[in-house]
Amino acid sequence: MERLLKSTTAFGLAIAALTAPALAGMDEAKQFLDTEIDGMSVLSRGEQEEEMNWFIDAAQPFKGMDIKVVSETIATHEYESKVLAPAFSAITGINITHDLIGEGDVVEKLQTQMQSGENIYDAYVNDSDLIGTHWRYQQVRNLTDWMANEGSAVTSPTLDLDDFIGTQFTTAPDGKLYQLPDQQFANLYWFRYDWFTDPAIMAEFKEKYGYDLGVPVNWTAYQDIAEFFTGREIDGKQVYGNMDYGKKDPSLGWRYTDAWMSMAGMGDKGEPNGLPVDEWGIRVDEDSRPVGACVDRGGAANSPAAVYAVNKAIDWLQNYSPPAAQGMTFSEAGPVPGQGEIAQQMFMYTTFVASLVDPSLPVMNEDGTPKWRLAPSPHGAYWEEGMKVGYQDVGSWTLMKSTPEDRAKAAWLYAQFVTSKTVDMKKADVGLTFIRESTINSEHFSERATKLGGLVEFYRSPDRVRWSPTGTNVPDYPKLAQLWWQNIGDAMSGAKTTQAALDSLCSDMEKVMERLERAGVQGDIGPKMNPKEDPEYWLSQPGSPKPKLDNENPAPITISYDELVASWQ
Asked: Where does residue 236 fall: left (phi above 0), alpha (psi -120 to 50 degrees), or beta otherwise?
């Protein structure tokens, strides 16, 4: 991966340096297609040149402009920033600076631009988790109307929105598309397939627990497997049965808002998100207006199921994970399973797959196939069929209304370039964050599938749409998201009990929603808070919030991985 980025980065920078003073055009495009794409596209060479020619023509009015865009730092965006941005600049004459910063910083910059009206960036790769925010505040250009009107001349005829797999997550209840997917990754269960299929290990597990070692279907089985592997020595290394992260950092909040609570069973049934109570514990009314987050208003963020969810994560982090994990962030923890000491991980963001397929890693076989596999994450004791099963990140191009029109048009051209059919397969090959059906179903990824541990099979399965981002119940993601890591951090550190931390969290969320209601800034789709009731009133109603279960450790269930994959076909 690193060697690939270095070589392609060198190409991109060389192109930019050589052509900066000159007129950009087809010569640069052909060199890019020859040297970088090199046939790795769903389009024929002739179709690639036609698509590049359209970009060159459409960019003419904006040549010489300096455009700034921003995204979080993951492999896909590193490739865009270091390779595709210089290539686009050379081909079109629009000078792109693609900044890479932390995801929390991206949200902070966007929030500042929303509040100040100052044009900080000309486009953001902003998670679709903010769809409820964008729909309610109306501070981003809705792309449906933009492409039909002001942006029509800079909207590619080969964009092919129907080929994108994530537009349902970037479309608001008003039916308008607000963001264009740039990368997607799911959180899945990761495990050492070689260990789980070792006859001696399987026999020992069966003798100790009385059932077969396999992919855990529920959290009881996951805990048994975590206990079984933790502390044993395999291949000369001490093994741990769980991997996670616990540092009080913005990424700790995503760890929980990214469907952990719904996987435990906190919310209501409903896909892609629980309704009326979602995976944040926020309840909405029949008009999609948020009405509460605490149990006494019909929310679930401090409900027994939420307490169970957080307690399980803390327990597993402390008892079955490497000690250093408690001080790690999202980005620090991601590559750790590749070091060969982790038996399983409940919550693996597949953006890290690109870093786990390095042939030199101890988790890879000599033939380039992985010793690990990916599968659906198990669910908790409160989960019921029909509930959300997991999270999918959809980082998406977002154009703020505060960005001047000419700058937005130039940035929109870049957004389409890095998601174009010419470029997409190569970008997916580097970052493994699929956005196009044509790329997923390509012959190239059929050939590469055996070396990606089930990732391709997952994205080709009908199941993939069940993994979804944060939905529209969340009225202001930037303001509410920061409350999660601060309050959950108090539970993780022991500064507060889990119940006290979640009581504080839901109360803090409601204060924000009450301020939004008083201000009226979101009109008739903004919060309209419920009156407080005795919590027992809501706990006795059907659905979420749910009363405490007498048994939070139901009988363990596992399934054969090969049977599971067969069900995806």
From this structure: left
What H or E segment, with its residue span, contains residue 188? strand 180-192
Torsion of CA 175, 178, 184, 188, to 10 degrees: -60
Instruction: Enter the pTM of the model.
Output: 0.91
* β-strand partners of 139: none
| Residue from 197, 201, 204, 189 nearest 243 by CA | 189
Q: Is 234 exposed, middle or buried (0-12, 13-18, 19+ CB in 10 A)?
A: middle
Q: How far apart are CA 72 and CA 81, in angstroms?
A: 11
Q: Per-10-residue mean pLDDT for the chain, 569 residues long?
A: 45 43 74 97 98 98 98 96 98 98 94 96 97 96 98 98 96 96 96 98 98 97 98 95 96 94 96 94 97 98 98 98 96 95 95 94 96 96 95 97 98 98 98 97 97 95 89 95 96 97 98 97 96 98 98 97 81
DSSP category for residue 245: -
What structural domains and CATH numbers belong to the chain? 2-178+392-454 (3.40.190.10), 263-307+470-539 (no CATH)
Q: Which residues contact 225 (CB under 8 A, 6 or more apart)?
A: 205, 213, 216, 241, 343, 344
Give pLDDT, residue 564.
84
CB 456 within 8 A of CB 449: yes
Instruction: Look at the block and give the residue holding tokens 């059907």.
Output: 542
Q: Which residues have a Cβ under 8 Å from the Cβ of 101 and sit 6 or more positions away?
A: 70, 71, 72, 73, 109
Residue 263 and residue 551: Cα distance in Å, rounded? 17
Copy the structure tokens of residue 95.
């000078």
Question: d(Cα 350, Cα 23) in Å, to the nearest integer?
Answer: 40
Run of H or E residues at 192: strand 180-192
Under a CB-based contact definition with an 8 Å cutoff, are residues 67 and 94 in contact? yes
The DSSP letter of residue 35 is: I
Dihedral sign of CA atoms 369, 263, 336, 5 in order: positive
Signed CA dihedral, 425, 429, 430, 436: sign only: positive
402, 117 contact by CB (below 8 A): yes
SS3 71: strand
Distance CA 52, CA 46 (A): 10
Inter-residue contact 189 to 344 (CB < 8 Å): yes
Contact assessment for residue 505 and residue 257, using Cβ atoms and an 8 Å cutoff:
no
Helix (H, G, I), strand (E, B) or coil at 95: strand
Closest by CA to 70, choosing from 39, 101, 36, is 101
What is the rounded distance in angstroms from the CA atom of residue 466 to the CA atom of residue 559?
A: 19
Residue of 474, 536, 534, 484 lying closest to 508 (CA atoms):
484
